[in-house]
Specification:
The complex is a heterodimer of chains A (about 250) and B (about 220). Chain A is α/β, with parallel strands linked by helices. Chain A is about 40% helix and about 25% strand. Chain A has a single domain, classed as P-loop containing nucleotide triphosphate hydrolases (Rossmann fold), CATH 3.40.50.300. The longest helix of chain A is centred in the last third of the chain and has 16 residues. Classes of the chains: A alpha/beta (about 250), B mainly alpha (about 220). The structure holds adenosine-5'-triphosphate (ATP) and magnesium ion. The site of magnesium ion has 4 residues of chain A, from helix 1.
Chain lengths: ~250, ~220
């Protein structure tokens, strides 16, 4: 087991947003989280890499046990170095070129030397077919290009787990496929990941496990077939029916 | 009197004007950065001190600031054993303007700092950058660019404020011009003041070009 979370709780303004989450993830697993808006999916991911600090809960990760509410600076740093995040609105560094965006996490976050880091960045851009754009700033790139670079920025760090928060929901429909294919390819290479998405085909086809999340709790968890073909809980059925009605 | 001669006399004040501008801007920036840093501390006392200073400065007309620097500060400092009687008028002029503009610049820095997108900071953290590195690599450059339009306005304002140093008897372009006008019994007044205005416009134009160059250099701003 790579990551285990026990009884993670988080409130905002006295409102319980995460209501005791238990979650464990094995190496190579692709965990897809689906669920209604406002249910706490983003908050869960942000608590995993300490962009938010949980009120209580335990994390076991990379052989360490961490009290989520009282994590030390060095524990936080350790977790952030072994994870990476892909954001809904990309959050590429605006003052850095495409290449710098990929290289500088390695250089300034992981202490890798600049030469190797830049070689890796250039190679990553080549793999994406974006090497001609290496000196472009985010403002000069399309949303799809930005997000693919955002993914490269995460993968180049060689993290144990990548956290994806709705990586395609800010993209034009015709670009969604390209970006999801990138993620699918990563998954096939054995990259462990947690993906929050509303793209059901991705959940069906790429997930090794699907979590249905609502009101700050994991309502139901299982293989894509279990969740999509044979949901057990009323709440899951409602959600899936509502989705089906929209198509 | 021909225009060339008038310009010649006005521009005798140019060294003082430009020194006032450059040194006041430098000292105001340093003091402004310090104030911003102090004001953003979690420490309540530090915050309080910065707030009081900012409010005092903001509420004081620049002219009065110059007078206070020139007449008040030597007295105040003497009380604590520091003698600045030997300072030149230019130094007092720079001091007065620096105190004033440090407050305005601090406000510009602070609001720029606070308007750096939190997503940028979170992204930096997510790739493992420490707070100090995040500040240097991400926050500072972006805040500097966000502050640029305000800084430009403040510099242009400072150019105009340099003309107030006549109150402490310093001969800048404005004081040279008004002196000349008095000496010639107001005969060439309009001509003199139009030439003076053109001189300031020229200076402001140069500043605008400089800022445009900076903006172009940092094209990612778009
Ligand atoms: N920083 C915050 N301060 C206060 N409330 C917050 C904060 N972040 C999130 N919330 C609240 O927590 C709840 C869960 O938000 P979250 O963003 O985790 O939902 P989500 O499941 O990701 O929704 P979506 O599918 O729309 O992205 C929401 O009610 C939101 O208003
Ligand atoms: Mg969300």
């Amino acid at each position: 087991m790579l990551l285990k979370i026990t009884d993670l709780k988080k409130q905002f303004n006295g409102q319980q947003i995460l209501n005791g989450i238990d979650l464990s993830i094995n190496k190579g697993e692709v965990v897809v989280i689906i669920g209604p808006s406002g249910s706490g999916k983003t908050t869960l991911l942000r608590n995993l890499n300490f962009l938010e600090q949980a009120d209580s809960g335990l994390m076991e990760f990379a052989g360490e046990k961490i009290n989520l509410a009282q994590a030390t600076k060095s524990e936080i740093q350790m977790v952030r170095r072994k994870t990476a995040m892909v954001f809904q609105n990309y959050n590429l560094f605006k003052n850095k070129t495409a290449q710098e965006n990929i290289a500088e996490g390695l250089i300034y976050g992981h202490g890798e030397n600049a030469k190797t880091a830049n070689q890796k960045a250039v190679q990553a851009l080549k793999n994406l077919g974006l090497d001609k754009r290496k000196d472009y700033y985010p403002s000069q790139l399309s949303g799809g290009q930005q997000q693919r670079i955002g993914i490269a920025r995460a993968t180049v760090l060689n993290p144990e787990i990548i956290l994806f928060d709705e990586p395609t929901s800010a993209l034009d429909p015709e670009l969604v496929g390209t970006v999801l294919k990138d993620i699918q390819q990563l998954a096939e290479q054995g990259q462990t990941m947690i993906v929050v998405t509303h793209q059901m085909w991705f959940a069906r086809n790429v997930a090794s496990r699907v979590l249905f999340f609502a009101d700050g709790e994991i309502i139901e968890s299982g293989t894509p077939v279990q969740i999509f073909e044979h949901p057990q809980k009323q709440r899951t059925k409602q959600f899936l029916n509502a989705l089906a009605d929209n198509y | 009197m021909n225009s060339q001669k008038i310009i010649g006399i006005i521009w005798r004040g140019f060294p003082n004007t430009i020194e006032l501008l450059i040194f006041s801007f430098i000292f105001a920036t340093l003091l402004g950065l310090l104030l911003t840093w102090v004001g953003l501390r979690k420490n309540r006392l530090a915050q309080g001190i910065a707030t009081v200073y900012l409010n005092l400065v903001r509420g004081t007309p620049p002219l009065l600031m110059l007078l206070l620097a020139y007449y008040g500060l030597p007295v105040l400092l003497k009380a604590i054993g520091i003698n600045i009687d030997h300072w030149t008028r230019l130094m007092f002029g720079i001091l007065g303007l620096s105190l004033g503009w440090s407050g305005y610049l601090a406000e510009a820095f602070r609001s720029a700092y606070l308007s750096v997108d939190t997503g940028q900071i979170e992204a930096a953290r997510s790739v493992g950058m420490k707070d100090q590195t995040t500040f240097r690599q991400i926050i500072l450059p972006q805040a500097a660019m966000l502050a640029l339009p305000n800084i430009e306005n403040l510099v242009v304002g400072l150019v105009k404020a340099t003309s107030l140093v006549y109150v402490i008897g310093l001969y800048d372009m404005y004081n040279q011009a008004s002196n000349l006008s008095n000496q010639t019994a107001g005969l060439h007044q309009l001509q003199i003041f139009i030439l003076l205005a053109l001189s300031y416009w020229g200076l402001v134009l140069v500043i605008e070009v400089l800022f445009r160059l900076i903006r172009r250099r940092y094209q990612w701003l778009a």
